[in-house]
Structures are given as C-alpha cells and as structure tokens.
From TrEMBL, chain A:
<comment type="function">
    <text>Involved in the transmission of sensory signals from the chemoreceptors to the flagellar motors. CheA is autophosphorylated; it can transfer its phosphate group to either CheB or CheY.</text>
</comment>
<dbReference type="InterPro" id="IPR005467">
    <property type="entry name" value="His_kinase_dom"/>
</dbReference>
<dbReference type="Pfam" id="PF02518">
    <property type="entry name" value="HATPase_c"/>
</dbReference>
<keyword id="KW-0547">Nucleotide-binding</keyword>
<feature type="domain" description="Histidine kinase">
    <location>
        <begin position="376"/>
        <end position="583"/>
    </location>
</feature>
<dbReference type="InterPro" id="IPR004105">
    <property type="entry name" value="CheA-like_dim"/>
</dbReference>
<protein>
    <recommendedName>
        <fullName>Chemotaxis protein CheA</fullName>
        <ecNumber>2.7.13.3</ecNumber>
    </recommendedName>
</protein>
<feature type="domain" description="HPt">
    <location>
        <begin position="3"/>
        <end position="107"/>
    </location>
</feature>
<dbReference type="InterPro" id="IPR037257">
    <property type="entry name" value="T2SS_E_N_sf"/>
</dbReference>
From TrEMBL, chain B:
<protein>
    <submittedName>
        <fullName>Two-component system chemotaxis response regulator CheY</fullName>
    </submittedName>
</protein>
<dbReference type="InterPro" id="IPR050595">
    <property type="entry name" value="Bact_response_regulator"/>
</dbReference>
<dbReference type="InterPro" id="IPR001789">
    <property type="entry name" value="Sig_transdc_resp-reg_receiver"/>
</dbReference>
<dbReference type="GO" id="GO:0000160">
    <property type="term" value="P:phosphorelay signal transduction system"/>
</dbReference>
<dbReference type="Pfam" id="PF00072">
    <property type="entry name" value="Response_reg"/>
</dbReference>
<feature type="modified residue" description="4-aspartylphosphate">
    <location>
        <position position="53"/>
    </location>
</feature>
<keyword id="KW-0597">Phosphoprotein</keyword>
<feature type="domain" description="Response regulatory">
    <location>
        <begin position="4"/>
        <end position="120"/>
    </location>
</feature>
<dbReference type="InterPro" id="IPR011006">
    <property type="entry name" value="CheY-like_superfamily"/>
</dbReference>
C-alpha cells in the first residue's frame, strides 16, 4: 500500500472515530443537566473534544483544530469547576457538536480546508463560547512556533569555521531518564555540521565513587549550521532541567551579528527585543534574564544587558551594539516628532479654499489686465505665481505613497493562495510612488479583484506549471510608476496568459462581437472588460461570475483613468491601470456655446476641426473616410440664439470610439479646479462637475464617456421608434 | 535490527498516523489503546521508546509512566508524553513521573519524528 493510500485509510479511521466520539459527546451533553454527579460525564465529553483536536492536527486539518480548541477550552474550565453546568452552556455546546459533525463530514467528502459558507455559523458559535471564557484569560490557539518566524539568525556568506559555540554538561540523571547524550549530539548534527567536539571529563569522580548510571561528561562543540539559536536550543529541550547548556555565536562571528543588530527595523527599542530579533538570544534566555532582574531586591537595579552577559548567553560586544542601536532608535523617534498628522478633512478644506484662491486670483488678474496700471500688473503677476506655488504645494500634501495599499495584498495573496491550493508569492515594486489620497482610497477594490482574478485564472496549478517547465511557485507582481502626469499601476502574473481564441469564441457566443469581425489581439483582450463576460468554465468563489472585470473597468473610468491588458501566451499577463495623479485639478479644454462655457478634460480630446457646410440636418460627418457621429451641445443643453456660421467640432474619444462635440468657440487649455455639482444636479447625465472661470462665470465640466453613451442610447431608442 | 516503539493512545487514528510515520522511518511499532493495555503489551520484550498520550480511559498516561518506571526492565526506557499547550500542569506531572520528553498536541508527523530521533537512533 502506498503512503498516500495508507494516509487515506488513516483519514477514514479518523472520520469514523470522530463521529463516534461526537455521538458520545452529544449523548453526554443531553444528559448533563439531569446528572447529579456530572464529573465523569464532563470528563468523557472533554476527552472527545480533546481527542478530535489532537487527531485533526495530525492530518493538518487546522480549521478543525482551531474550532475544537475553543470548545475544549470551555470544557476544560467546566472540568476544573470554574464554570458550572447551565442550560445556556448546553444550548451552545450542542450546536458546536453539530458543527463539528459537519466539519468532519466535509472532510469525509474530501473538503479538507475551510468552507466559507460554514464560517459564519462558526463565528456565531465561537462568540457564544467566548462569552463563557471571558473571566479566564484567553488561551492562544496551540500551534507550534515555526522557526521561520524568528529573525534569520545566520544568513548566507561562506562560513567555514562554524558559527555556533556550544557548551553542554548533561544533567547527572539524564541516563536514568532514558536520555542518551550521544543521540542528542547526533540529532544536533542533522541541523548542520559539527566542526569540532571536545569532551570534558573533569567532573568524573574516582572509580570507586563513580555511578555507572550517572552522566559526568561535558562537551564543547563548534557547529556550522544555518539554524537559528532557538532551533539549536530546542534540540536540548528534553534535557534542559539539570543540564548546563550555553549556546553562543563564535567570537569571529560577532561583527556579523553587530551588523545584523544595526540593520534591524526600528519598531522596537527594548534591549531584549533587539537581541532577540537578531537571534543572539532566545525567548527563553530573555525570559530568564528578565526573571533574574525582577527578582532583585529591594528593586531591580542591574541592567538587563549585564545580567545576560553574566549568564553567559550573549557576549559583551553584542550587548554594546544593541545599546547603540537603542540610542539610535531613540534619536530617530525624536526626529519623527517633526512630522505631524493632519485630519484629512481639514486638508480637503484647505485644498477647496486654495481652489477658490486660484479662481479669484484669475479674476483679479483679468481685472488688472483691463487697466494699464503697470505696478498693479506686476503685483498681480507676482501673486499669480505665488498662488500657483501654493496650489502645487497643497496638492503635494494630499499625495501618499501607494506602498501601504500594496502591502495589504501580502495577506490577501497568502490567504487566497491557501484557499486555491496554489503557492504564490507577491512581489511589490514602486511602493513609494505617490498618488492623490482619494485615488488610493478608491483603487483598493478594483486592485483586489484584479489580484484575485490573476491568482484564480492567471496562475496555473502547480502540476500544470511543472509540466510547462516553470517553477511550481507562481509569482504575482504589483508595480507602480509615474508616467507623464499620471500614475500607472500594474498587476502582472507569470501564468498562462490570456487565451485569445477562447475569449473571441466566448465573445461571439455572447453576441458581443460579430462572428466575422476582424479584431486585433489588443481589441480581443479588452473584451474581458465587457459586461457579462467570463471565460472560466467553472465558477469559483473568488472570481468567475462575470461581474468583475466590467466593474473594475467602470471603477477605473470613474476615476478618469483607463485600463489595458498585455498578454504573452504561456508567460503571463499584465493589466495596467493609468490614473490621473489628482482628482482635484485637471487639465481642461475650454469651449464656448452661446454665452456658456464648457470644459472638456484635455486627455479626452483627439483633435479639433471646423464643421464646414453644416446643413443642421444630420448628426454625422465624414472624418477622413470615417463616419464621425457628433453631438450638438447647443441642442443638448437647449441653448438659445443663433449658431455661428462656422461651428467647430472637438473630436473626443471614449471607450475606444471617436465622437464629435459641436461647439461655437474653441477657447483653449485651462487649469480646471473641479467643484462637485450639488445634489440637486445628481440626475443630470453627462456632467462631471463645475468650475469657476477667472471672470467669475461658472463653466460645466463634461463627463465625456457618460455623455457619449447616453447619446448612443437615445439614438438607438429613436431608431427603434422609427422602425415601429 | 529495527528498534521498537510502543505507541499508547486511545485515538485509533493517532496510533495509525504515528505508526505510519514511525514505520516509514524504519522503526517497529506496537500499539496500545490505554495505559492498562500498554502495560500488558510490554511482555518483557525490549522496547526502545514509548510514546504515550495523557488523557486516556481506564489508565491515564501519568499512572502508566509511574507503573512503568517501577518495572526494572523499563526503568530507563525514554518516554515521550503527548501533552497540550493548556496542560502545563500535566507536563510537570509527567516529568516528575519520569517522562522527560514531550510533544505538544496537535502535532505534525514530522514533529513527532524529530522528537523521536533526538532520543533514539533508528
């Protein structure tokens, strides 16, 4: 029978055994309240939970361990008499029992990880259980501490002479306890290489008084190992009592550790923490040192560093290095105080006021230009320069690094990877790229969807990756950089890339494109952003319901950004979002219709041309052989008055389609401070906001994509009417 | 000759998985379902290591170790106790009884093997 078969077999035993235990538990619980002497019953119930917890850990069923642990804790307090049997307690324990049955059944059905649909119910049960545990300090879920959580104590570098110095005198009783010193040293050798071993026999008494069952030997060992101090210390866990065990970095490795201490992060300024993080002392050694310090009477007066050196767990130069680092951190903390935190609302208010200042400045400038007072002109031009500087400075205040948003995804990638059973690492670059606070706030959700999508559909399963000759670990990248006045954010994966043919087939099936349409790769890839599009044949919890990519696109468009896809078959794909750096001020293009002015966002403008020979009876024109539909702003906004003889057309692009906007006058580029429209205008389509011109007049900012799509809908409606 | 390990636990699945891991590492394994059964399975044969749970019906792990240490043939046999984080007191009791090594539940098979190989050579 293969190993896997054996384990499957064992898992079957586990399921049967657990279900039996849970049945016992339920029976026990049901009779609990009526039992005058419940202690035996409680013991049996406790044992059932305890056994299930232990066994599920063995099979790596961590979610069962976590839940059962809480149940067990409650039962433990009950067993210790700290809690008494009550109808409420039984009422919560019975559903817990049911939940455990469900969990075990799920395992029997092959679901060895958490089922999201169960977690809600589980949360409620846990809350109920917690209320019984309140008076007791909460216990930590028992997981074995991973060595990986410790700071990497001894990194790379060629170390030939060994890096740890061990002094071990085994306790006299260790042989009597069944502990063989030799086997511990052999086990130590599995962590690295024993470079030298010296045996001390000076504790050995004369032959007549020697007890052959006692251990007298001491050892000095030089070990070359990548393991950290805590791991090495753990080798001797079973013989620590009565033994003398000291582990020190080798003298010539001290400079390395000094450097390590210096390179530590600055979130901690306690001496013990610094030494612990650099791996030169272990948690246990620190605790012992602190205990010694606390035990001093009348009050602790010896410094921790001295105690640790005294106990021979660390050398003096390392303590000195940590003390220096401590001072440095204190200095830095003092410097940190020079930055201040500001309420975001106040900052927004300031930006608003500065926006007003820009506008009224422009007004003053306009008036000044109408006079010929040279002193006034000079003063206003100086003022305008300062106002611009203030504006730029104020906008700078709202800029935050995107790194914090990115690093949230470390957790997401880990959790989702676990859920999907894929090993995926996240690489973040360009985290210090700055972008407007409001952009950062709104980009989280679309990014979340892109990341999940890339993990789910982009990166292949480990088997497929191995077959394609890639490393089994998938890689997801988040990158950000500045590009001519906008910020680009990229989500890339090293998965299979987009399947061009499948996307096209799906799009045709859904009627998104005509079967005979000739599309470029780029056009095909952007079909994934169409509403209702999804190629995944299986719907998963994470993505694949076809409501995602189109929402992402809409979010990005709302931020006045755009989104594009790049894909290399078999090598991965990149989705790039481009967003404006700020949402408060944009580059606009000012146009006039009648007496009103309108601002078109400059990045939407393709070109401007004159509408010659307009007969006012059609809504399209010939643009170098292409049909260009256009919208007459005069009609759209119901502006009275005569149309000039030669109106202009501003060609704008939205959703990859060009449309013309017919206006009376072209005025030119204009730094536009965006003022949101009041709620009253919430239902008006096609307007993105307003701004105030230097003359004090109000100009409306056109929301080009909405304007165009609303116009198209109306057009289609008219056609239907015409057909009917 | 392969060394023999006695595994005492009331949960059959634990015995099974620990057994698979130990046999895979080259040990011989004898199973017992509680302390009483454990004592009866000794039969005077050479046992190199004992792994025992604490909470068991009939005879618990602590009593089992105490009784074991009374037997001259098994006085020096190393014992690994399966304790839990919440049972610090039981661990102390076990050590006083003579079970100096321990593995904290829930554990992975690899952790069990590491603890075993600290104590005996396969």
């Amino acid at each position: 029978m293969s190993f896997d078969d054996q384990m499957r077999d064992a898992l079957k035993t586990f399921v049967i055994e657990s279900l039996e235990l849970l049945q016992d538990m339920e029976d026990g619980l049901l009779g609990l309240e009526d039992d005058p002497e419940p202690s035996e019953r409680i013991n049996a119930i406790f044992r059932a939970a305890h056994t299930i917890k232990g066994s599920s850990g063995l099979f790596g069923l961590d979610h069962i361990v976590a839940f059962t642990h809480v149940v067990e804790s409650v039962l433990d307090t009950l067993r210790d008499g700290k809690l008494s049997v009550s109808p409420e307690l039984v009422a919560i324990l019975l559903p817990c029992c049911d939940h455990m049955i469900e969990l075990i059944q799920a395992v029997a059905d092959g679901n060895v990880s958490t089922n999201p649909s169960m977690t809600n119910a589980e949360r409620q049960l846990l809350d109920g259980l917690e209320s019984f545990l309140k008076p007791e300090p909460k216990q930590v879920v028992t997981t074995v501490q991973q060595a990986g959580e410790q700071f990497e104590a001894s990194g790379g570098g060629v170390i030939d002479s060994g890096n740890w110095h061990l002094f071990i005198q085994f306790g006299e009783n260790c042989l009597r306890d069944g502990m063989d010193p030799l086997s511990f040293i052999r086990y130590l050798a599995t962590l690295g290489e024993i470079m030298s071993l010296t045996t001390f026999s000076h504790a050995m008494p004369d032959a007549e008084s020697m007890d052959p069952e006692s251990s007298y030997l001491g050892f000095e060992i030089v070990l070359k190992s990548d393991a950290d101090k805590a791991t090495i210390e753990a080798v001797f866990d079973f013989v620590r009592d009565g033994s003398y065990i000291h582990i020190l970095p080798l003298e010539d490795k001290i400079p390395y550790y000094v450097e390590l201490i210096n390179s530590l992060g600055e979130d901690n300024s306690q001496l013990g923490e610094l030494l612990l993080k650099s791996g030169v002392i272990t948690q246990r050694e620190l605790q012992e040192g602190l205990n010694v310090q606390q035990a001093q009477v009348p009050q602790p007066n010896t410094r921790l560093g001295e105690i640790l050196v005294d106990q021979q767990v660390v050398q003096q130069p390392l303590v000195n290095a940590a003390l220096e680092k401590q001072q440095q951190i204190k200095d830095n903390k003092a410097r940190e105080n020079q930055t201040i935190r500001v309420d975001a609302e106040r900052l927004d208010k300031l930006i608003d006021v500065i926006g007003e200042l820009v506008i009224s400045g422009a007004g003053v400038n306009l008036r000044a230009l109408q006079t010929s007072d040279s002193a006034l002109l000079e003063a206003t031009s100086e003022m305008m320069r300062l106002v611009e500087e203030v504006r730029d400075g104020a906008l700078q205040l709202r800029m935050v690094a995107i790194g914090a948003t990115f690093s949230r995804f470390q957790r997401v990638v880990r959790d989702v990877g676990k859920e999907l059973g894929k090993d995926i690492s996240l690489v973040i670059t360009g985290g210090d790229t700055e972008v407007d606070k409001s952009v950062v706030e709104k980009i989280g959700d679309p990014l979340m969807h892109l990341v999940r999508n890339a993990m789910d559909h982009g990166i292949e399963s480990a088997e497929v990756r191995a077959a394609r000759g890639k490393s089994s670990r998938g890689e997801l990248r988040l990158n950000a950089y500045h590009e001519s006045g906008s910020i680009a954010i990229e989500v890339s994966d090293d998965g299979g890339g987009l399947d061009r043919d499948r996307i096209l087939a799906k799009a045709i099936e859904k009627g998104l494109v005509q079967p005979d349409a000739k599309l470029s790769d780029q056009e095909i890839y952007s079909l994934i952003f169409e509403p209702g599009f999804s190629t995944a044949s299986q719907i998963s919890n994470l993505s694949g319901r076809g409501v995602g990519m189109d929402v992402v696109k809409r979010n990005v468009t709302d931020l006045r950004g755009d989104i594009e896809v790049e894909s290399r078959p078999g090598q991965g794909s990149t989705i790039r979002i481009r967003l404006p750096l700020t949402l408060a001020i944009i580059d606009g293009f000012l146009v006039g219709v009648g007496k009103s002015s309108y601002v078109i966002p400059l990045d939407r403008v393709v070109e401007c041309l004159e509408l010659s020979g307009d007969l006012n009876d059609r809504d399209y024109m010939d643009l170098r052989g292409e049909v260009l539909p256009f919208i007459r702003l005069r009609n759209l906004f119901n502006i009275r008055g005569d149309q000039p003889r030669r109106p202009n057309v501003v060609v704008v692009h939205a959703a990859g389609v060009k449309t013309g906007l017919v206006v009376d006058r072209l005025i030119g580029e204009f730094q536009t401070v965006i003022k949101p429209l009041g709620k009253l205008f919430g239902h008006v389509e096609g307007l993105g906001g307003s701004t105030i011109l230097g003359s004090g007049e109000v100009a409306l900012i056109l929301d080009v994509p909405v304007l165009v799509s609303a116009f198209e809908h109306k057009l289609q409606g008219n056609m239907h009417l015409a057909q009917a | 000759m392969a060394k023999t390990i006695l595994v005492v636990d009331d949960a059959a699945s634990v015995r099974q998985v620990v057994g698979i891991a130990l046999k895979g590492a080259g040990y011989d394994v004898i199973e017992a379902c509680d302390g009483k059964d454990g004592l009866s399975k000794l039969n005077g044969q050479k046992i190199h290591l004992i792994i025992s749970d604490v909470n068991m019906p009939n005879m618990d792990g602590i009593t089992f170790v105490k009784e074991l240490k009374q037997l001259p043939a098994y006085k020096f046999t190393p014992v690994i106790m399966l304790t839990t984080e919440s049972q610090e007191g039981k661990k102390q009791e076990g050590q006083a009884a003579g079970a100096k090594a321990w593995v904290v539940k829930p554990f992975q098979p690899a952790q069990m093997l590491a603890a075993v190989s600290k104590l005996i050579l396969p």
